[in-house]
Amino acid sequence: MNFLLLVISDNSELATPDEMSHIDSFNEKLRENGHWVYANGMSHPSASVVIDNRDGVPKITSGPLHNTKEFAAGMWIIEAPDLETAHQLAAQGSHACNRKIEVRPFHR
């Protein structure tokens, strides 16, 4: 099963060099154990736009969909045999990046 591990931040600062070192180690562990699919950081929500073309006329709005203190700062997509394993890996990822992690399974 694939899972999204969404990194949740409440500030606009990038990971510190120490946090990056821990993240790199965590990424390597994911690769070694066959859990790695993809990972990347994301820009601050202020760099986003929302596009709504449901009625055939694109409406572009600057800024994030939701204006909240917390936002998605990065993500991993992992392969895990079950939700319990995904939770364990998310706990390790949270410790590595020093941020909260939201775990969300993908539809099959």
Structure description:
With 108 residues, this protein is of the alpha+beta class. Helices cover 29% and strands 34% of the residues. The protein contains 2 helices and 6 strands. The chain has a 4-stranded antiparallel sheet, covered by helices on one side. It has a two-stranded antiparallel ribbon with strand order 3-4. A hairpin with a 6-residue loop joins strand 3 (49-52) and strand 4.
CATH class: Alpha Beta
What is the SS-derived class? alpha+beta
Q: What's the β-strand tally?
A: 6
Low-confidence stretches: none
**SSE string, helix = H, strand = E?**
EHEEEEHE
CATH architecture: 2-Layer Sandwich
CATH superfamily: Dimeric alpha+beta barrel
Helix content: 25-40%
Q: Estimate the strand proportion.
A: 25-35%
User: Spatial order of the strands in the main sheet?
Assistant: 2-5-1-6
- Beginning-to-end CA distance, first to last residue: 8 Å
Radius of gyration equals 16 Å
Layout of secondary structure:
Layout: E1 2-9, H1 17-32, E2 36-41, E3 49-52, E4 59-62, E5 71-79, H2 83-97, E6 100-105
Antiparallel strand pairs: 1-5, 1-6, 2-5, 3-4
Helix pairs in contact: 1-2
